[in-house]
């Protein structure tokens, strides 16, 4: 009898404790989960639904039209319309950012991690653009390249040059330069964090063997941070199609079509347009999401398979 | 012999030398931009056009006062009836309103952006064996890998349907999500905390809530504070979200964006626009100068490392 009482009391206690735990879990999780359901799941579901609809301007409602939106997007691309231009510019921007931006970020991170001359100052300088608003930087940059640079060029070389943003030959690359330049800081922070986790003993034994800095970077540092590098590259793939290249900061909604990136096109259309553009933008978004998912898994697999390994 | 040694050192150290030069060039460009901006903001327009890069002939600190006192812009919202666009609620926006909206948007936004992942990470870490915790954790990973594109249209539609569109409190609800890298950082930190503290509290009869608020949360305030800082800076500089989701609640960043395109007489010249741009930059610079170690420190899984 006594043993049963003890077991019964233990069971009551456990149930009470379990109840408290469930209540506690619910009190912390219910609102975030509800928020996720409404503002992530339902939003994404709505995007998929929009992609197969068309807005009726007379009734103000949406009707199902099958794949018509997707066909129109492909038609626009094949005819070299604004979406084709935006895709081309987006890919170019990503390629330049990957090649130049990522390379420099890795090299700068290695330099800072090794605490070479001026590394603590450079670390702060590289991060500074990250805390500055893009609209502030662009405001300053516009006057710098359109007024400051021509003024200095005239005084130094005695020749007049056109403002860099006014000259169609330099406009796109002037904007792209700033976009890539501002991307360094965040990359450096992440790579430096990853490099600092490399075991000192590995580095020291390599140095004892007389390895140069370049060899150390190539054969030790890069393989050891490669998983972080892959995560960063793969995670940044989506940026191909959302990067506005600061165009809205430069031109608001009035950028010339030849400058468009997909990110700018999508943002501009949703900001300027009404409910009639939602299906068109959602169809583009859905296609890009499917493409990005396939690319993400594919590239990640290839990089881990063929990239350098710690072994 | 000495010359040979110098050449040898230069040859061996070419990587450091080249990288130093590149970093110096990067620094030079940024410093040039900032110095150019500072000097320009203190010039008259005539002075600026005559001498774009030199010192001001007359130091016009009044440019900053001109902006705060005189800058205004139209605040309006687009309403669509069928596909026809109607502009409603047109009124003049002024600086005090920008400051008020900015404080709620940035501080409130930073707080909820840190709180949601913190709460979810704690319960999923503490009750990691529960099915729901595994589902939540997997969901976070999946949402980080698969990033939907082009959802702004549906997001606006859902925001309007749920009544959070163009509401400051509504925007805080939209920011109260747990997915993202900070969930993983909090999760890892909670997992690594020693159970001794909480076990002792349980023995004394403390409830789960008391254990969290009095024992666990104080141990992660460093991470919570750093996440809030990072998000604060992000929201302080963000105007593109405000442009879409809070059209009649402009923030300072939105105001500066408007300022960069303003046609108001006396404020539309280069010096005034640049002064406006620098105004936005000052608070985040001060924050960065005070908290740069936290911001540049390793906010990694496992806690904040110096």
List keywords for this structure.
heterodimer; A: 311 residues; mainly alpha; two-stranded antiparallel sheet; 12 helices; 2 strands; 77% helix; 3% strand; extended; B: 306 residues; two-stranded antiparallel ribbon; 8% strand
Alpha-carbon Rg of chain A, integer? 27 Å
User: Which ranges of chain B are low-confidence, i.e. pLDDT below 50, for 5 or more consecutive residues?
Assistant: 300-306
The tally of strands of chain B reads 4
Helix and strand sequence of chain B:
HHHHEEHHHHHHHHHHHEE
**Molecular shape of chain A:** extended
Q: Hey, roughly how much beta strand do the residues of chain A contain?
A: under 5%
Silhouette of chain B: globular
Mean pLDDT of chain A: 88
Oligomeric form: heterodimer
Number of DSSP strands of chain A? 2
| Number of DSSP helical runs of chain A | 12
- The first-to-last residue Cα distance of chain B is 44 Å
| Run of helices and strands of chain A | HEEHHHHHHHHHHH
Widest sheet: strand ordering of chain A: 1-2
Cα distance, first to last residue of chain A? 64 Å
**Biggest protein-protein contact in the assembly:** A-B, 99 and 98 residues
Mean pLDDT of chain B: 87
- The low-pLDDT segments of chain A are none
* CA radius of gyration of chain B: 25 Å
Output the strand order for the largest sheet of chain B: 1-2
Task: Provide structural commentary.
The complex is a heterodimer of chains A (311) and B (306). With 311 residues, chain A is mostly helical. Chain A is 77% helix and 3% strand. Chain A is built from twelve helices and two strands; from the N terminus they run H-E-E-H-H-H-H-H-H-H-H-H-H-H. Chain A has helices at residues 2-51, 68-78, 82-113, 119-131, 134-157, 168-195, 200-208, 213-235, 239-242, 247-251, 262-272, 278-306, and strands at residues 53-56, 61-64. In chain A, strand 1 and strand 2 form a beta hairpin. In chain A, helix 1 (2-51) packs across helix 12 and helix 6 (168-195) crosses helix 8 (213-235). The termini of chain A are far apart. The mean pLDDT of chain A is 88. In chain B, helix 14 runs antiparallel to helix 15 (270-296). The radius of gyration of chain B is 25 Å and the shape is globular. Chain B has helices at 2-12, 14-41, 45-50, 62-70, 95-126, 131-145, 152-161, 168-175, 181-192, 196-203, 208-219, 221-237, 240-245, 252-259, 270-296, and strands at 73-81, 84-93, 298-300, 303-305. With 306 residues, chain B is mainly alpha-helical. The interface between A and B is large, with 99 and 98 residues.
């Amino acid at each position: 009898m006594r043993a049963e009482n003890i077991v019964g009391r233990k069971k009551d206690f456990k149930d009470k404790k379990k109840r408290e735990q469930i209540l506690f879990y619910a009190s912390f999780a219910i609102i975030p989960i509800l928020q996720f359901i409404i503002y992530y799941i339902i939003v994404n579901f709505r995007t998929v639904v929009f992609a197969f609809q068309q807005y009726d301007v007379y009734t103000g409602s949406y009707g199902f039209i099958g794949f018509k939106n997707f066909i129109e997007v492909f038609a626009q691309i094949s005819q070299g319309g604004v979406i084709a231009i935006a895709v081309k510019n987006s890919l170019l921007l990503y390629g330049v950012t990957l090649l130049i931006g990522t390379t420099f970020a890795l090299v700068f991170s290695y330099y800072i991690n090794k605490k070479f001359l001026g590394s603590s100052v450079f670390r702060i300088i590289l991060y500074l653009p990250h805390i500055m608003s893009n609209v502030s930087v662009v405001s300053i940059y516009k006057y710098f390249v359109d007024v400051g640079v021509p003024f200095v060029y005239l005084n130094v070389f005695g020749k007049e040059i056109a403002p860099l943003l006014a000259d169609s030959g330099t406009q796109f690359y002037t904007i792209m330069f700033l976009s890539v330049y501002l991307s360094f800081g965040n990359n450096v922070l992440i790579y430096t964090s990853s490099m600092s986790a490399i075991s000192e003993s590995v580095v020291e034994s390599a140095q004892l063997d007389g390895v140069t800095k370049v060899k150390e970077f190539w054969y030790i540092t890069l393989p050891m941070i490669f998983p972080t590098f892959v995560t960063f590259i793969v995670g940044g793939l989506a940026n191909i199609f959302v990067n506005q290249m600061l165009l809205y900061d430069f031109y608001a909604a009035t950028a010339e079509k030849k400058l468009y990136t997909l990110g700018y096109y999508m943002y501009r259309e949703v900001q300027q347009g009404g409910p009639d553009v939602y299906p068109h933008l959602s169809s583009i978004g859905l296609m890009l999401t499917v493409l990005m998912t396939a690319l993400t898994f594919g590239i990640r697999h290839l990089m881990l398979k063929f990239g350098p390994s710690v072994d | 012999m000495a010359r040979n040694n110098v050449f040898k050192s230069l040859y061996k150290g070419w990587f450091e030398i080249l990288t130093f030069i590149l970093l110096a060039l990067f620094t030079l460009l940024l410093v040039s931009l900032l110095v150019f901006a500072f000097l320009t903001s203190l010039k008259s327009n005539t002075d600026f056009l005559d001498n774009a890069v030199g010192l001001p002939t007359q130091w016009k600190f009044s440019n900053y006062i001109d902006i705060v006192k005189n800058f205004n812009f139209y605040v309006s919202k687009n309403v669509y009836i069928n596909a026809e666009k109607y502009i409603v609620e047109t009124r003049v926006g002024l600086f005090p309103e920008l400051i008020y909206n900015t404080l709620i948007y940035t501080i409130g936004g930073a707080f909820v952006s840190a709180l949601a992942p913190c709460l979810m990470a704690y319960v999923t870490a503490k009750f990691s064996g529960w099915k729901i915790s595994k589902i939540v954790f997997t969901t976070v990973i999946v949402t980080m890998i698969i990033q939907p594109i082009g959802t702004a249209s549906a997001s606006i539609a859902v925001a309007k349907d749920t009544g959070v569109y163009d509401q400051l409190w509504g925007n805080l609800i939209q920011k109260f999500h747990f997915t993202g890298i900070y969930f993983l950082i909090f999760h890892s930190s909670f997992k690594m905390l020693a159970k001794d503290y909480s076990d002792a509290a349980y023995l004394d009869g403390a409830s789960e809530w008391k254990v969290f608020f009095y024992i666990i949360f104080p141990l992660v305030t460093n991470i919570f504070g750093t996440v809030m800082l990072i998000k604060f800076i992000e929201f302080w500089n963000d105007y593109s979200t405000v442009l879409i989701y809070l059209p009649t609640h402009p923030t300072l960043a939105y105001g500066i964006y408007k300022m960069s395109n303003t046609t108001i007489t006396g404020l539309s010249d280069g010096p005034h626009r640049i002064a406006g741009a620098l105004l936005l930059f000052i608070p985040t610079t001060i924050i960065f100068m005070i908290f740069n170690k936290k911001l540049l420190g390793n906010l990694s899984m496992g806690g904040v490392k110096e």
